[in-house]
Recover the amino acids of this structure.
């Protein structure tokens, strides 16, 4: 498949995953799709809870599942989409600070950049690396 086709597939997958979100409290449904170095795609969506601190973003649901299950491959890109009150959000979605921290540590852990496709209603913004969003991430 052509590179552009693979990107489009990842983006479409993230958009589709908004339907799997459980967001009765915020009504903000987020979908994520992660491409692995070996070509596999893993997906996730945000999952909320009445105990709000137990809510988890779509990015971390997906990325942490990936690391728990993907064996010797690692993430190379992630597409993220969001639907608010039934409509795609107008502006692009950007991962929250905690998700950025997780992304940046995965870049370090796997010695790779993780590309981001941030989806909005009228535009998809591409970032080459999660560290662009969190240049001074915490490291131990
Ligand atoms: N959320 C995500 O899943 N990803 C983001 O990048 C931002 C926020 C979720 C968390 C919560 O379920 C809802 O969106 C509203 O904050």
């Amino acid at each position: 498949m052509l590179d552009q086709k693979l990107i489009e597939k990842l983006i479409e997958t993230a958009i589709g995953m908004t339907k799997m979100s459980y967001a009765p409290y915020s009504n903000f449904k987020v979908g994520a799709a992660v491409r692995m170095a070996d070509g596999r795609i893993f997906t996730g969506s945000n999952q909320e809870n009445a105990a709000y601190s137990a809510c988890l973003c779509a990015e971390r649901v997906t990325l942490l599942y990936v690391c728990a299950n993907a064996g010797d491959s690692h993430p190379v890109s992630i597409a993220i989409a969001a639907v608010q009150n039934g409509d795609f959000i107008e502006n692009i979605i950007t991962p929250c600070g905690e998700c950025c921290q997780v992304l940046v540590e995965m870049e370090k852990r796997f010695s790779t950049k993780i590309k981001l496709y941030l989806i909005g209603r009228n535009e998809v913004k591409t970032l080459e690396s999660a560290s662009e969003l969190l240049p001074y991430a915490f490291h131990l």
Remarks:
- The chain has a mean pLDDT of 96.
